[in-house]
């Protein structure tokens, strides 16, 4: 039986929303705004969670109402993939910190992160979403490298198909 896939995202100006819709289309899943998410959305076989980073390293606002649902979800032993949108030049030292924050919650809830993405070549200087030369999920930057986004999403979807056995 095919796996249910939910892409839950927080987006203020539409960049993360467009990425979420492209990822959902690439994997045969459904994209849902964090502002509209309900607890059942967090029960999908494969959860893909995305956020842009705002303020100085903060989660996108729509995640505030969805975070309690994520924290309450039973993620033990479940695969979860993350993606983030940020500005690796203008906010080089807080690049994608929102993805780091979501990653911490997923790990605390017992989830298994898949979809790590090599960080070499990005112009950032620091990120809480980076571990051992990799971001914990897909790193996108529509402010500085919009031409890279479609290709990165395509390669990441192919990687997830392998890692999640889709
Ligand atoms: C006021 C402001 C603060 C921002 N802070 C950060 C930040 O701390 N880290 C980061 O990586 N990007 C930061 N960004 C860049 C946004 O995350 C980026 O533009 C993103 O593509 C917006 O996606 P969205 O339209 O889905 O919300 C900031 C942008 C603005 C305008």
UniProtKB/TrEMBL annotation:
It comes from the Bacteria. SUPFAM superfamilies: Flavoproteins. Residues 5-161 form the Flavodoxin-like domain. Its cofactor is FMN. Gene3D superfamilies: 3.40.50.360. One of its GO terms (molecular function) is FMN binding. Keywords: Electron transport, Flavoprotein, FMN, Transport. PANTHER family: FLAVODOXIN 1, FLAVODOXIN 2. Belongs to the flavodoxin family. This is Flavodoxin.
